Structure formats: C-alpha cells, structure tokens
Amino acid sequence: MLTVPAYAAPSATEPLVPTTIQRRDTGANDVLIAIRYAGICHSDIHLVRGDWGPVTYPQVVGHEIAGEVVEVGSNVTKFEVGDRVGVGCMVNSCRECENCLAGFENYCLNGNTQTYGSVDRDGTITQGGYSTHVVVNEDFVLRLPEEIPYEAAAPLLCAGITTYSPLAHWNAGPGKKVAVVGLGGLGHLAVKLAAAMGADVTVLSQTLSKKEDGLRFGAKDYYATSDPATFDQLANRFDLIINTVSAPLDLSKYLGLLRLDGTMVNVGAPAEPLPITVFTLFGNRRSFAGSGIGSIAETQEMLDFCAAHGIAPEIELISADAINDAYERVLRSDVRYRFVIDASTL
Ligand code: NAP
Ligand code: ZN
User: Fold this and answer.
1) Per the CB 3.0–4.6 Å rule, which of 116, 194, 298, 310 could disulfide with 199?
2) Which part of the chain is the Enoyl reductase (ER) domain (predicted)?
C-alpha cells in the first residue's frame, strides 16, 4: 500500500479538504502513475454533491489524469517506467460481455469500474485523480502523444473523448452543420474537434459573452439561447446537435433546430429527467440520443487526432487549495474553459 496526498469531499455539502488515501500495491498487470495534472470535470461536482445518487464519503474525484509511469507490474507489456500516460473515466470493465468483447468497454453491460465512486474488484471504492498517484490496470491506460503537454492532455481524457465519440459516430465532417450547446469544458473541445473534422460549427450559448472565443475555436456562427429569435432563425438547420449542458433544457426547442434525419446527442448529465415532446421528433424524422465517454481504443484515436490537428483545451492551471473556488466558478458557467489542478500542490 502507498499512502498519498489527495483532496476529498467529506460530504455533499462541505468543501473538499486535503487528506491522504491509500493506493493498492502495483499488481502484475498494473502501472503506478505519478500524477502531474488532473482536470476538473463538471461530473466531479455532480457526483460529490450527490446529484446522481448516494456517495460513500470521503470521496476523491477526478477522471482527467495525466502523468508519468513510475512502476510497472511483472506482466505489463504496454508501458515502461518514464512513459507519458493518461487515465480517463474508467479503470476496468468485465471484459466478457457482448459490448466489452466488441471493444466498447464504456458500454460494459456489467457496469465498468469508474475511476472514482465505483466498487473496485477488491471491494474498496475507487478514488480519483485529485491525488499524486494512482494504480491502474495497463489495459485502461492511454499513451500521451509527445506533442501534447501533460496539462493540456488531462482534459482530453474526459471532455475530449466525450465530445469526439459522438462527433465521430454521427459523422461530423465536411458538409455537415453541427451545433454545440454550452461553451464550457466539453463544449469548447466539441467546437475545436468538430471544426477540425471539417464540419460547419455553430455555438449555442446562453449569452454572446464568449462569442469571440467560440469563433476563435473554429465556430462559424454563435447564437444566444436567451434570445427567443435564435430558435426561429435556426429552425430545421442542423444535422447534429451536441448538448453539453449540465442543467435541464427545454429539449423540444432545441430538437426543432434539427433538419431532416438530424440527431441531437445529449452528453450533459443533469440530475433531473428531461421531458421530450414526441411530436417534435416526428417532424423531420428527428432522433434524440445519448453518448457516454468512449472506448479505450477510441480515446487513443482521439489523442492521436488532437496531436495531428494541434488541438488542445484552453486551461486555467490552479493549485489544489483553489479547487473549491473553481467548483463555484464552474457552477456559475464562469469557466475558461477547463480548470486543471497542478498535482505538485496537493
Ligand atoms: P461545464 O464546463 O460546466 O460546461 C457546461 C456549460 O453548459 C456551461 O459552461 C454553460 O455554457 C452551459 N450551462 C450551464 N448551466 C446552464 C443552464 N442552466 N442553462 C443553459 N446552459 C447552461 O461542464 P462540463 O464539464 O463541460 O460538463 C458538461 C456536462 O456533461 C455535465 O453535466 C457533465 O456531468 C456531463 N458529462 C457527461 C459525460 C458523458 O460521458 N456523457 C462525460 C463528461 C461530462 P454557456 O455559458 O456557454 O451557456
Ligand atoms: Zn468528466
């Protein structure tokens, strides 16, 4: 066992506090990673505040992890000490179900082991990346391309793959009109990725306050959803809408923006159910879909795509004692565009 510094949530209502946690010994198929940086995802906040159900506290979150391999188990073949690596939202899966066998560990039918808040094989609750070290089975470790610095790589491990996967699956590319709802951590990467794929990208944000940024990230158009005229102007326009909003939206308004056979994909994960008016789906034979992170192979593909296209998140580096302030800013939609914790300050 290794005792390491971490930041943990003591309950749903208290600020995160410094603590120590134990990491298991590096098993035969494991690598021990010295974490350099960890991104703050809105999912971290949803989970620690109990939005998604009961939590066993204290809980360390963080599933955007970038660091260096410092020890490998005896059976490890993919990694060596010194390798630059990443870990995203999952650290294991059953490896036996239909979806795992098809290479979709993110859709494991027995429930994959999440990087935090899951019951691990040894019965303990997994603890996430707001810590200095983590031990992970090598099959769930990603290789960071040399071109991507550690701190920029971290947010790609969740925000990057969660937007890349639906964009790739629904064929964002030349000739396709793609709208991204919400210009936060996921949203700003969705804009950069969709633009790099060749799609015609529009941002739908609450206000026009981040318009210059959105256009700089590659969007051609930018509209405020607080202006009712937006929904008339853009009716029947998009092939694909990626909704990254962390709060409930009036979906029918957004579904009305889809053209014939268009799809709206929800990646935002609000606590509340989202009602749909089915008649809006009948018009234009529209689809409403969801998407959860991406497989390990697709995550590697996304990292390589980002390296090839020079895509990196816009980050604000913080020390560990600023995590609670960062949470408040994320909750106020005042994030530009991902907070990343410097693990050396833990
Ligand atoms: P974030 O950085 O907070 O971005 C969310 C954006 O949504 C905000 O910046 C804001 O953009 C917009 N927004 C927030 N509240 C709103 C409201 N009440 N009405 C309208 N728009 C609002 O969050 P994130 O880290 O990108 O995560 C976004 C969501 O995706 C979270 O729910 C998270 O749990 C979920 N998620 C899902 C997966 C998956 O696998 N499906 C993976 C990761 C995260 P504007 O200021 O531009 O309006
Ligand atoms: Zn996340």
Assistant:
1) 194
2) 11-341
